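note to self — DONT lose this again. spent like an hour looking for the file last time. sequence + predicted structure for the chain T wanted, 189 res
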Amino acid sequence: MTTKTETKVINGVNVTMLFETIEAIKDNPEISKFKFRATNTWQDGTYNRATVKDFYGALQEDDTRAPLHFEIDEPPVLLGNNQGANPVEYLLVGLSGCLTTSMVAHAAARGIKLKGVQSRLEGELDVQGFLGLSETIPVGYKNIRVSFKIDADITDREKEELIEMAQKYSPVFNSVAKPVPVHVELDKS
């Protein structure tokens, strides 16, 4: 007689599938290797359009989703026309989504039911670096602050632990906090 495993879902996360995935990766670590891709095409002025479609993961190419387009521009004060968020805003958006996703998934794995999670991100940047006016002012963010509001029937200490887990396991947080090498080159094809 076989028993059917009941699917357990917490915070919208299929915890049963999460643990099955973890076991599959333990058996074959190659499953865990992913390559994400984006393309970008300059439109005019400071306006660009980026596209995300396919990626490699779980031992296969995946091109099943429709292309996702991201409008990228600057506000008028930075010579743009507000046709989209600017790149440093997208960095904050990516960071917010990755921290939240990591938090929610790890809370689900621990059996913690969340009622709501909100975050606010703010980064300080001095454009003198970007404009080449100062060699001592960083070109990128000087700092980024993230604050979370977590609605759950757990203690403040447990909420702080969820935030710590989000930081520990978020790929975007770790790519920003502990920068990874980025290789930029001319495509001669």
